[in-house]
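From: lab user (bench 3)
To: helpdesk
Subject: output format question, protein + iron/sulfur cluster

Hello, I'm new to running complex predictions and I'm not sure whether the block I got back is the full result or only part of it. Here's what I submitted:
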Amino acid sequence: MDAAEPNDATPFLPERRSLKALREAARGCRGCHLWRPATQTVFGEGLRRARLVLVGEMAGDREDRAGAPFVGPAGRELDRALAEVGIDRREAYVTNVVKHFKFEERGKRRIHKKPGRLEVAACKPWLDEELDLIRPEGIALLGATAAQALVGPAFRLRADRGRLLDSDLAPFVLATIHPSAILRERDDRARHEERRAFTTDLAALWKALPQGGG
Ligand code: URA
Ligand code: SF4
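Helpdesk reply: Thanks, we reran it on our side. This is the complete output you should expect:
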């Protein structure tokens, strides 16, 4: 990456702190180079009063086209798990650490590229503002990128997934796999097991919330 590229979304934050103002300002964010090849900013979506915030890694191909988070295959896995736990997605808030889709073109396909440390750091002011405004009771960190961005780089998903974490972010914070990890499993059995473990993790967080999660 060009060293002269900007690496901070902070100058693009709006003066007025509301979800609407943030979302509008994020549309014009040029805080890092990722906006250029992408279609649009994919900001978080959901209720200002959401009790639960779900944080993914980064907009994917489908999200980039639609302008909304978790609307592609990973979103379907997420929806399936939420339905099973009894969480109404419309009452949660769904977002990502990185708001523009990073990809590599291979023929007609756009292949997801993992966001790097600098891109995560550049984009994080948006997520910090979202969390600060919503102040949810629970936060689900979906995958290592989200967990490391919010808990710290030393966080190890394999060791610490599925249990409540001690964090200042919210009273109840839990990390689990990213739903796309389910899709990457080769055989049905492994996929089924990942799906079940993912659902179990989300259920543990939901049950921990006051009033047993709704
Ligand atoms: N993966 C993510 O992390 N977020 C999305 O919105 C879609 C896929
Ligand atoms: Fe701004 Fe984040 Fe997009 Fe980079 S990825 S341009 S920091 S919104």
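A quick orientation on your result: Residues 56-60, 63, 69-70, 72, 74-75, 96, 180 surround uracil (ligand 1) (CB under 6 Å). Let us know if anything else is unclear.
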